[in-house]
Amino acid sequence: MDIRATHRWDLDETEAARLQSDLAAQIECADRFGAVERIAGIDLGYEDADRITRAAVVVLKFPELTLLDYKVVRKPTTFPYVPGYLSFREVPAAIDALNALSVDPQMLFCDGNGTIHPRRFGFACHLGLLADLPCIGVAKNRFIGSHEPLPETQGAWQPIIDHGETIGAVVRSRAGVKPIYVSTGHRVSLESAIRLTLQCCRGFRQPDTTRWSHRVASGPPLESDNLGIGSTLL
DNA sequence: GCGACAG
DNA sequence: ATCTTGTCGC
Predict the structure, then answer these.
(1) Which residue is nearest to the C1' sugar atom of B6, using CA?
(2) Is A210 in a helix, a strand, or coil?
(3) pLDDT (tens digit, 9 = 90+) per residue, A171-190?
(4) Is the CB of A46 under 7 A from strand B?
(5) Which nucleotide is closest to the Cα of A112 by its C1'?
(6) Could you read off the pLDDT of A120-172 as tens digits, one per residue?
(7) Which nucleotide shows the minimum CA-to-C1' distance to residue A138?
(8) Structural contact between residues A93 and A127, judged by C-beta atoms closer than 8 angstroms
(9) What is the torsion angle, in degrees rounded to the nearest 10, for the CA atoms of residue A210, residue A233, residue A197 and residue A100?
(10) Is the distance from CB of A134 to CB of A186 less than 8 angstroms?
(11) What is the pLDDT of chain A when averaged over all its residues?
């Protein structure tokens, strides 16, 4: 791919907050995508005491969820972790990883929130907007907002409300386990985001996109027997 | 002022 | 995110 940032990254918190508010106006919360046959999962990690940021991206065939391609890139970390400004720390490396792909995805699944954000511009919104791709945010922990009690049954979900506005959903991807937090990144409605995410979970708590990206980023080397390109197993 | 706080 | 063994439960 050929994704390019249209703005600078070396901003202080005040400048970053203003940029988020400006760019948030460009986020599309309605469906705008065609046939989805290839989806990407992005996972970020850190090495050498946070000095290096590692971005791992995988492309899976949809809805089969078999591995089509993957890449891992590393680059110096330039921004600290500050709740509310995660994208300024992780999006640059994520873009590099996406640009290194040999197979282009038609939709992105991110580790982190989209519109579940103080200014409605989380990591998934920032990356989706710059990549101009439909994008969904899936977080493992609650950031902001509240919700009604969530049934323990698989597939159950409840809207997440912040200041009277629905900004995402808490989803029981697997019966009886801690839920995940789903929200729009860009060009995908919340309803579609929930449906597509559940389609990628296969009964596991997290979608295969993040399970695979986390695997290629860390876990033992692939390729060996059946864990290479084309496999469905993890 | 106090607690919460995506990865 | 990351540092890490055993262990409780289905």
Answers:
(1) A112
(2) helix
(3) 999 999 999 999 999 999 99
(4) yes
(5) B6
(6) 999 999 999 999 999 999 999 999 999 999 999 999 999 999 999 999 999 99
(7) B6
(8) no
(9) 50
(10) yes
(11) 95
- 0.70 cut: is pTM over it? yes
Q: Is A10 one of the annotated binding-site residues?
A: no
Length reported for chain A: 234
Residue type at A173 in one-letter notation? S
Name all contacts of A119-122 with Cβ < 8 Å and 24+ positions apart. A119/A17, A119/A20, A119/A21, A119/A24, A119/A84, A120/A24, A120/A27, A120/A167, A121/A20, A121/A21, A121/A23, A121/A24, A121/A27, A121/A87, A122/A86, A122/A87, A122/A183, A122/A185
CATH number belonging to the domain at A20-217, selected among 3.60.130.10, 3.40.50.720, 3.40.47.10, 3.30.2170.10:
3.30.2170.10
What nucleotide is nearest A141 when CA is compared to C1'? B6
